[in-house]
Specification:
The complex is a heterodimer of chains A (281) and B (327). Chain A is 77% helix and 0% strand. Chain A is mostly helical. In chain A, α3 packs antiparallel against α4, α3 packs antiparallel against α8 and α6 runs antiparallel to α8. Chain A is elongated, with a radius of gyration of 22 Å. Chain A starts with a helix and ends with a helix. With 327 residues, chain B is of the alpha/beta class. In chain B, the strands form two sheets. Chain B has an eight-stranded mixed beta sheet with strand order 6-7-8-3-9-10-12-11, with helices on both faces. A four-stranded antiparallel beta sheet of chain B has the order 2-1-4-5. In chain B, α3 packs across α4 and α3 packs parallel to α6. The two termini of chain B are 24 Å apart. The relative contact order of chain B is 0.14. Classes of the chains: A mainly alpha (281), B alpha/beta (327). The interface between A and B is medium-sized, with 22 and 32 residues.
Amino acid sequence: MKRLRAFWRHYRRNLAAVIGLAILSLVLLMALSAPLLFPTDPWEIVARPFIWPLQDWSYPLGTDMLGRNVAAGIFHGAQVSLLIGIIATIAALFVGVLVGALSGFYGGLTDDVLMRLTEIFQTVPAFIFIFVVVAIFNPSVQIIVLAVAIVSWPPIARLVRGEFIALRNRDFIQGCIAIGMNDLRIIFVQALPNALAPVIVTASVTVALAILAESGLAFLGLGDPNVMSWGTMIGAGRQVLRQAWYLTAIPGIAVLLTVLALNLIGDGLNDALNPRLRGRS
Amino acid sequence: MTAAPLLRVDGLRTVFRTGAGTANAVDGIGLHVDRGETLALVGESGCGKSITGLSLMGMVPRPHGSIAGGRIDLDGRDLLQLPARQLRAVRGDRMAMVFQEPMTSLNPVFTIGNQIVEAILTHRAMTRRDARARATALLELVGIPDAGRRMDDYPHRLSGGMRQRAMIAMAISCDPDLLIADEPTTALDVTIQAQILALLRRLQREREMGMILITHDLGVVAETADRVAVMYAGRIVESGAVRQILRAPQHPYTRGLLQATPHAPTGAGRKGARLTEIPGLVPSLYDMPQGCAFEPRCPLADASCRRSRPTLSPTGEDRHVACFHAG
C-alpha cells in the first residue's frame, strides 16, 4: 500500500502520463459499459445508412453504409481491441520472460541457442510476418492475437535477458545460490521481481502495438470480419472513404488516442519505476 | 591431528579459461578446518582467496571458471563428486557464506524477514509461521534491536552494519557446520567492523562452527583467527597458527604484508616503525613465472628461485612454508 502510494506520487508528476491514464480509463469504461449503453448487437441495422455524426442525436456518431450505429461499434470495438492488445501482450510476456530469464541466468550454450532462436524471429519484419500468418490462415481474432504475440516476444526476451545478466552477478542472487535455493525459485521468485520495471513499461507499449497491428490488418482487409473491432470498422469504412470519411476517421481517432495513451503511460511508468529502483539498490 | 577435520581440501585447482588463455586462479591448494576453529585466508586482491571461497561452495563463476581438480571433503564427503541436487542440499545447510558487500547482498524487493524465512524453508520442512519465529530469534541472536519489527523492513531501511548482521543471521539460519566469510567487514566502518567480528567469533564459538575468514586485513586476522593460510598468486605460501605467523613470519611475502600493515600486532609494523610497501605487482595469472611466483618482488630471490617453484613444506608442527630461504 505504502509502495503504491509512493509510486503514484512519482507517476503523477508526469502530466502527460496522467492524461494518458485518463484516456485509457475512459476507453476501459467504454469497453465495460458497452453492453449496458448499447444492448443491441452492434452489427444490427438500426437506421438508414450514412447519417453523419451530430445530425441525429439518437446516433451521435452517425450510421455506416448499412445503417449500423457507429457509436455502438466504437463502444463494443473498445472491448475487442483492448482484449486483442492485452491477450497478445500476455502471451508475448509469457514467452519473452521465460526465454529471456533462462537465457540471461544460465548464459553459455542455453543463451546461445535461445538467442539465435530469438534472432530468427527478429530478423523477419514484424508487420510483414503478421500479414503472412494471417493471410495463410483465416483472418480470425485468435490468429491475429497469435501473430501479434509471435512478433512481440523477441524484444521482451532480449530485455529480460539483459536484466538477468546483470542480476545474475548481483550479490543477493549469489547469496540465494549460497543458501542452496534451486534455480527456478531463484529465477522466478528472487530475480524476476527485480527485472519487472522495464518489462511493465514495454508491456504497455506492446499493447499499443498490438492494437495498431490489428487496425492495420483490418484496414488492408485482413481483419476478422465477424468481430466488431475498431480495425473492422476502419476496414469497412475504407471502401466508402470518399463519400463518408467519418466512418474511417472515428475508429481511427479511437485507435490513435488509445495508442497514444498507452505510450504516454509507458513513459510515465518508466519515469516512476526506474529512479525508484535505482534509489533503492 | 587426531580426528578427521571438518573440512579438508586437497590439491584444489580452479581455472578460468578466457580468450586471453588459461588462468590458474587457485593452483593446487590444501587446507583444513576443524570444528570450532577459524582459519584466516589472507592475501592481496587477486591472489585467489575469494575464488577459493567460491570454489568451496561450488559457486565458481560460469561460464569461464571451473574446478579442474582436487578434493573438498566436508565431514568425509567429497563435495566435488556430489551431483548438483545434493550439493544444493549441502549449501546453506551444512556450509554457508557471508559476502563482502552488505549493501547489495539482500534482495531489495523483499523484507529482511521474508529472506531469512526463505533461507530456512529451503532446507527445513516447517510451517511459515515457525520459520518466522525462528527468523525473529535469529535476528535477536545477531544483535538486531527490535527484531520483531525489523523483520518487516526492506533492506534499504537498514544500515550497512545491520544488513551484515541480517546476512549473518541468514547464513547461520540452518546451523551450518562451516561458515565462509568473504571479507565480511571490508565494506563497514571501523567501529562496526569490530562489532561484526566479535559477533562472528561469538557465534562460531557458541555453535562450534568451523569458519573460514577471507580477508586482506591482518588486524582482523589477529583478532579473530586461530590459524592462518597466506595466499599468493593462487597458492598457499605459508600456513600455521596465527601467533606463529604474525610473530615469526617465515615467508618473505608474509613478512612484506606485515610490514605494510599499520598497527600490526607484531613484526615491523609496530608503532613508530615505517610502513614498507612490497615493490611491484602480483604477476598476471595468464603469465606465471616458471619459478617462485613471488620471485620478481622478493628481496631474497636468487637463481634457484627463478629455476623452480618451492613447494609447501613443513617447518614445524602444523606449520608450512613454500620458500627456499624460509626462516
